[in-house]
């Protein structure tokens, strides 16, 4: 019966698309069209062997698995940042522990979109709004989750892409405002800033460091370089990906081979230029 209903729904959508009045009469898939029975039995932790990428995100998956069912009757969807205006995630079956990653990353949605990843506990419908895996088209994508797999059933295109912000101009050294060397250890909180990219657009090598939960200093690897030589040269980027653990209100430190330069507090998933950090204005050599 379910297969018949799904096929009938696809036929109706296709008929509407090719009808003369399709521009105004298209009926988008609704959560109520794909009902799911909510499971209230014992819960299992995520099975990290059920997907090749599950172990990489084990901490996020284990933390999410402690919550209530929020998708497709017996699943918990966990989402996390994958860059600026970018989200990814996975569905965890609370009954079996099976992990299924979402159909792709979602990015670049318009600011008017309230929820780029929409789902409900009593429905097998998943709606992703934006670019999937950073590929056109910019659209609202409707997936049915059945048999442990996501199946694209409809795509509503022509969603306007947000304008891309221009990078900030370099700040003159006359505006120098040296920052404090005082830093505090990480609390290890779940909402710590752990993913961002820093672009070195100034005329000196830099390195990035932070204090871990024990108050010990940790150093960046400087992109593709090693911890033994962590300097990031001019025109290079440094990305931290699940490496640093520090509150957003605390500081990362930036140093040169000559010692401490300044400190800054990045935003999760942000991309910033060194010259655009207010705490780092007037770095020597700029």
What is the total domain count? 2
Determine Rg (CA atoms, Å).
23 Å
Taking pLDDT < 50 over at least 5 consecutive residues as the criterion, the unreliable ranges are 16-24, 160-178, 185-191
Terminal CA distance: 69 Å
Mean pLDDT: 73
SSE sequence, one letter per element: HHHEEEEEEEEEEEEEEE
Name the structural class: mainly beta
Percentage of β-strand residues: 25-35%
Helical content stands at under 10%
How many helix segments? 3
Description:
The model is unreliable at 16-24, 160-178 and 185-191 (pLDDT under 50). This protein folds into 2 domains: 28-156, no CATH class; 173-280, von Hippel-Lindau disease tumour suppressor,  beta domain (Immunoglobulin-like), CATH 2.60.40.780. With 286 residues, the chain is mostly beta strands. The protein has helices at residues 2-17, 22-25, 58-64, and strands spanning 75-81, 86-93, 99-101, 106-107, 117-118, 125-132, 135-146, 149-156, 195-199, 207-211, 217-219, 237-241, 252-256, 259-264, 271-273. Strands 1, 2, 3, 4, 5, 6, 7 and 8 form an 8-stranded antiparallel sheet that branches. It has a 4-stranded antiparallel sheet with strand order 11-10-13-14, with no helix packed on it. It has a 3-stranded mixed sheet with strand order 12-9-15, with no helix packed on it.
